Amino acid sequence: MTTDEISDHGKDSSIGRSNESAYMSFILGVALLVMVPITLNFNVSLWSEGPLAGPTSIPMNLVYPAGVIGVILILVIALTSIILGIQGLLSAAKKKTSKVLPLVATFVSVVAFLLWVVVAIDLVAILSCFRFIHY
Questions:
Q1: Which of 70, 81, 98, 115 is a Cys-bridge partner for 109, taking CB atoms 3.0 to 4.6 Å apart?
Q2: Within a domain: 126
Q3: Does residue 106 sit within a domain?
Q4: How many domains does the chain have?
Q5: What is the 3-state secondary structure (H, E, C) of the chain?
Q6: What is the CA radius of gyration of the chain?
Q7: Contact indicator for 111, 59 with CB cutoff of 8 Å
Q8: How much is the pTM?
Q9: CA distance 4 to 61
């Protein structure tokens, strides 16, 4: 095999830049979708048990800012996933390759973002209620 054959082989690879962005977007979107019911379960447990659940009380002065920062970071990751999906879609259109994976990745990422907005509102509402309760 000559060096020309090796370099030509890399140019026509089936996994191009559009697919890399779409794969990353899809992986992030699915991971975020999996985390939604887990976080909602945590929210329900936190609401039903209250801030004094467990052997020691939860320091609400630390939980509220940590929850807000965590939710903001998750939403930034979801937006990054959407951007990667759109980037993969644009790249696939430019290269005239299949747009199925970038479309699915973008759709999954948008759904994950919208569900995380609901989870964020729920978590911040629960933590806001506990913030003003003094036991």
A1: 81
A2: yes
A3: yes
A4: 1
A5: CCHHHHHHHHHCCCCCHHHHHHHHHHHHHHHHHHHHHHHHHHHHHHHHHCCCCCCCCCCHHHHHHHHHHHHHHHHHHHHHHHHHHHHHHHHHHHHCCCCHHHHHHHHHHHHHHHHHHHHHHHHHHHHHHHHCCCC
A6: 21
A7: no
A8: 0.77
A9: 63
